[in-house]
Amino acid sequence: MRLFFELSMRSFQRQLVYRTAALAGLATNFFFGIIRIAVLVALYGTRQEVAGIPLQGAITFTGLSQATIGILSLFSWYDLMTNVYTGAISSDLLKPMSLFHYWLSHDFGRAVGQLLLRGLPMMAAYAVFFGITTPQSLWQWIAFVISLTLAWLVSFAWRFLVNLAALWIPNALGFIRFVFILSWFMSGFLMPLRYFPDWFIRVCNFTPFPYTINTVVEIYLGVLQGPEIVQAILGQIIWGVCLILVGQVVLRLGIRHLVILGG
Amino acid sequence: MEEIIRVENLQKHFRVAKHYRGFVGAFRNLFSADYRLVKAVDGVTFQIKRGELVGYLGPNGAGKSTTIKILAGLLVPTAGNLSVYNFLPWKDRKIYVSHIGAVFGQRTTLWWDLPVIESLDLLRFVYRIPKDRFEMNIKEFRELLDLDPFLDTPVRSLSLGQRMRADLCAALLHDPILLFLDEPTIGLDVVAKENIRQFIHHINFQRGTTIILTTHDMSDVEKLCERVMIIDHGKLLFDGALKTIRTRFGGKRRLLVDFSEMYPDVNVEGAEVTERDGQRAIFEFERGSVTASELIGRLSQKYRIQDLEVREPDIEATIRRIYEEKLLEQ
Amino acid sequence: MRHSLDLYWRLIGVQIRSQLQYRLAFFLDVVGTSLSTILTFATLAFVFQRFGNIAGWTLGEVAFLYGMVEAAFGVMDMLFSGFDPQNFGKQVRLGRMDQLLLRPVDITLQIFGSEFIMRRLGRILQGLLVLGIAIGMVEIHWTATKLIFMPVILVSLVCFFGGLFIIGATITFWTYESIEVVNIFTYGGSEMMSYPMNIYQNWLRQFFTYIIPAIFLVYYPALFLLGKPDPFKMPIFAPFLAPFVGLGVLLVAWLFWNYGLRHYQSTGT
After folding, report:
1. Of A28, A177, A195, the CB nearest to C183
2. Which domains does chain B have, with CATH numbers?
3. H-run or E-run covering B54
4. Residue-level pLDDT at B172
5. pLDDT tens, B290-323?
6. Who has the most CB within 10 Å: A263, B237, B327, C130?
7. What is the rounded distance in angstroms from the CA atom of residue C215 to the CA atom of residue C196?
8. What dihedral angle (degrees, nearest 10) is formed by the CA atoms of C87, C91, C94, C97?
9. What is the pLDDT of residues C150-186, one digit of tens each?
10. Structure confidence at residue A198 (pLDDT)
């Protein structure tokens, strides 16, 4: 547990080094946010609410989705794949530590760093320039924080699993990118899933993706109430645990495969 | 032999912005126009004749790579006269560059994803090498550098030694008259180093290619260069024969003696005992005050010697002393 | 010059061959990249299903903008990849520029030929597909002018984005840290132009009308082609400014690039 903390700290500190780059990134994200907001405002037109989401909620959604790009590594995450292809994994395997735990702590630190460097500043900027809605009750806030942490866990779990493809395929980049592209659409990152037809939402629920950004957004905006919140969080936990377990198994198989082949 | 490189009072100055640290510093950086002038090359003058193999030495940051870049046409000098093979390198770049070759120890000149042979073929096209000349060179280099085992391997998969050999081949395919070698043996094992050195010597000897070698490996220098130039802080401190460095600054020579018996006291006129370890003793003596054979003669008259070895002053240590003790600064 | 051009074609050919070697990976790559465009279009379709239209523009009309921008960006990405600012900046700092300067070939053409990424083909094809679907969904009263104008718009867009890439790359001669900001104009710009510009607030729209005239690249040509009224009362020739904007940006980029090259040669990095 202590090791987890140490590794996370290190990863977190490394994030802080890239301060100026973070600022540039923030500006870029913010610009995209402006465009998305304009699109949403134009879409809403005279309507006050669509699919249970008021206009201000939709605007807050853009802020939230931009703010969590870094935390949830929404666009891409190839770190483990690179690690395998450069051979660095061999020296990692020599360390007396579970590979999964190492990457978990590493990603946690990174996520916290991103929260501070991009997430919070982005939400602050949105609050200042566009006005955002906030959770109404303490319970909602708590649920939001829990949900965000679980979202990170689920996100990490599927990213980790997908990167493991590198242990078998010599050029897994295309495959991993493919899965990421799917995730943009099914996680509610581009648009809240509520806007989509029901059948599509049902299809998405067969994947872990909605349980990252979409769940967090819906809890934050208050779209989900009471038992629905509990249900959603439960969904996150189930997906998280399942993916982690599968990940562990696949990791073990993959390492054996790697070792047999000689890296 | 004609001169092909003529450098006169070469100057290269850089304006380096004063960099402020920290958060407040970041703002100062945006608005301040404070510069300091760095004279990377400060009045360097030399001539190099065709066919010479010159070592160009100096500590890091001395101005070595800056000079080389200027000679290669990659950098425009601030002042001074420069002529290489009757070209002004940076001005006539496209034509000039087809007469020179360069090998950088740290990075390759080949295409990363392509098999070696394809890279070489592209280069044939880049340098407009006539087909028969290309075939001849490839044949010769394949043999000399033992390229066959990895001709079809992409450059990114090569070991350091293989990449170096491929780079050397690439640099010479178009029969350049001048070759720049920057750390060509860095990171290689002893055998590989020796092979590369032999190749370099062959190129210089057989083809008359003028070579400028920058390196931190003193064995490279000792085995290849007769002439050495030493630069530090932008100024050329020494330009002459390698032998001279040894004799002028070499310091003491050493004699390692393994005696047949444990002598309590081993003294000899003309030398000083600097180390004793059982039956071994190390003597130091000044070059010029006594010859090695005289010393050996004196020793063998007094003691029974099992084995001995004469050690020249370590050239690296010598050059380091030159930098540190500023022995060359007038 | 001809020698440099010949080398350019060779470099492209060599890269195509080497990428096609890994057939499966290449195929997956193309599929993956095109998936992005198609899925975005699907998202648009879903969203329009629920919202009806956006500021008076139907799905087909928006898809027309989107398809055009995607196809053009894809072409630009394929041709100008060597100038992708983030990659270029990294290469400069790795000393790659010196490597290129040591070859008796034109520098700019070497950079053009240095990165030719086949999988971008996916984006181009999907962009054209979406464009095709869009044309099927809307009613365009085709004339000879409109037909000829279509490729002109595409080329103008390619020149515009290509010029931005080159400007970004040139900036990395001086600084690399915040080069991500260029993405606002390239990727941000393309996202922005995929929607009808009348949805944007005045200040933003005016910036992209008078300072960086992106509004003339796709929006105005679309107004002309789709026969929609101009809400901003621009002069009647506004739609035909597209090629001038595109070429103008490319020209500025070219001049800046040459200046940057000279600067690099006199100061290194």
Report:
1. A28
2. 3-247 (3.40.50.300), 252-312 (3.30.70)
3. strand B53-57
4. 95
5. 888 888 888 888 889 899 888 877 666 777 777 7
6. C130
7. 9
8. -170
9. 999 999 999 999 999 999 999 999 888 778 889 999 9
10. 92
Helices (H), chain A: 2-17, 19-44, 55-71, 79-86, 88-93, 99-114, 120-129, 138-163, 173-186, 198-204, 213-221, 227-261
Q: Which residues contact A140 (CB under 8 A, 6 or more apart)?
A: A219, A220, A222, A229
Name every residue in C having a CB less than 8 A away from some CB of B: 3, 6-7, 10-11, 14-15, 18, 94-96, 98-99, 101-106, 265-268
Six-digit token string for A96: 């007396």
Q: Which helix (H) or strand (E) holds C15?
A: helix C2-21
Chains contacting C (3 or more CB pairs within 8 Å)? A, B
Nearest CA in chain A to C195: A39
Judge residue A27's burial from the number of C-beta atoms within 10 Å of its C-beta, 0-12 exposed, 13-18 middle, 19 or more buried. middle
Q: What is the pLDDT of residue B85?
A: 92
Q: In terms of residue numbers, what domain contains A10? A: 2-257
Domains contained in chain A, number: 1
Residue B18 burial (CB count, 10 A): 12
Query: What is the pTM for the complete model shown?
Result: 0.84
Q: What is the DSSP letter of C70?
A: H
- Residue B329 contacts by C-beta under 8 Å, 6 or more apart in sequence? B237
* 8 Å CB contact between B21 and B62: no
- Note the pLDDT of residue B21: 62
C185: nearest CA partner in chain A: A28
CB contact under 8 A, B109 and C99: yes
What ipTM does the predicted assembly reach?
0.88
How many angstroms separate the first and last alpha carbons of chain C? 27
Contact call for A195 and C46, based on CB within 8 A: yes
In Å, how far is B97's CA from the nearest CA of chain C?
6
Q: Residue C63's closest CA among C34, C42, C77, C36?
A: C42
Query: In sequence order, what are the beta bridge partners of B238?
Result: B230
Q: How far is C15 from chain B (nearest CA, A)?
A: 8
- Rounded mean pLDDT, B141-154: 92
